[in-house]
Design a protein that fits this description.
This protein has helices at about 5-20, 40-45, 285-290; strands at about 55, 60-65, 75-80, 85, 90-105, 115, 120-130, 130-135, 135-150, 160-175, 175-190, 200-210, 215-220, 220-225, 235-250, 250-265, 270-285. The protein is mainly β. The chain has a 17-stranded antiparallel beta sheet that branches. The chain starts with a helix and ends with a helix.
């Protein structure tokens, strides 16, 4: 697939997000009736990863990696825009999540590292509209498909394969503690025949402890398993900690977060991740506000 075709797919995907969000019941992002929610109420809604919120996270990641030859560590940077929006008003809700990454690879002795759009990922997670009681908290879950489109502008920024697989999420939302796991697995089904086939697992675990004044301590790192890595299965396990705060940026509620990760288990013959840093801003709009409820 040529770069012009990839860019066309990316533009269509982004346009689809805008149209789907704008087309939610209520017809506009400026509905007439908008109940006022406090920062604490917004914070509780945001603790649910498949809740009734329209979110637009903008996430910056900087990952320090060391080459297999033991050279000095270099940085891989990624900026992701992750539109997340629910559809449906009955017993079930479909939560759509689109990951649009812009990747910057480290420089080499031969020149500047490449940068540009990477592969696009979509998840459609079906979840009950009502959560289940579990002790003093709530239990929520979701299942659905996940797919990857080879939209990368350059070969080194993506895998060159169409990929499909399952996704599932489960979380406990307690009075102060949130615990959860969001798993995805992808198998390549088509794409560039010259590129290696794909079988990869991503397990994002998250924990957050609520503090006063809408602060929280916690993290959401991702364990990755590449089942077809060169030299055998490659596993990466990070531990993380960070702070976030839910506040209002003007009239718009948002969560601002910073997180540091240390990669404690790594295997495989590829570059070895060591430390990571994440900074994110997540503006939100409760979907029921758009419906004028």
């Amino acid at each position: 697939m040529g770069s012009s075709s990839r860019n066309r797919i990316l533009r269509v995907a982004l346009a689809a997000v805008v149209l789907m969000v704008a087309g939610l019941p209520g017809g506009s992002l400026h509905a007439q009736s908008k109940p006022k929610l406090s920062a604490e109420e917004i914070a509780r809604l945001m603790d649910n990863p498949v809740g009734e919120l329209i979110q637009l996270p903008i996430q910056y990641d900087r990952l320090s990696v060391r080459s297999p030859q033991g050279d000095d560590a270099r940085a891989v940077t990624t900026v992701k825009v992750i539109p997340t929006f629910p559809l449906g008003r009955g017993r079930w809700r479909l939560v759509n999540r689109l990951v649009v990454p812009h990747v910057g690879l480290p420089d080499s002795p031969l020149g500047d590292g490449p940068s540009g759009f990477g592969d696009l990922t979509y998840v459609g997670a079906l979840t009950p509209s009502s959560s289940s009681d579990l002790g003093r908290g709530k239990l929520i879950w979701a299942v659905g498909p996940t797919l990857v489109l080879p939209t990368a502008g350059e070969g080194s920024l993506g895998q060159g394969k169409y990929q499909l697989g399952p996704a599932a999420a489960v979380a406990y939302l307690g009075p102060r503690l949130t615990l959860g796991l969001f798993g995805q697995h992808w198998w390549s089904v088509a794409g560039d025949a010259a590129r290696a086939s794909v079988s990869q697992t991503n397990l994002q675990y998250f924990w957050y402890l609520r503090l006063p004044e809408q602060w929280a301590i916690g993290a959401s790192p991702s364990i990755t398993i590449d089942w077809k890595a060169a030299g055998g299965t490659a596993v990466d396990v990070p531990l993380g900690i960070g702070l976030n705060k839910t506040l209002f940026l003007g009239p718009l509620p948002a969560r601002v977060a910073a997180e540091v990760t240390r990669h404690v288990i790594t295997s495989g013959d590829g570059p070895e991740p060591t430390w990571g840093f994440r900074l994110s801003v997540t503006p939100v709009i409760p979907a029921f506000i758009l419906r004028g409820r």
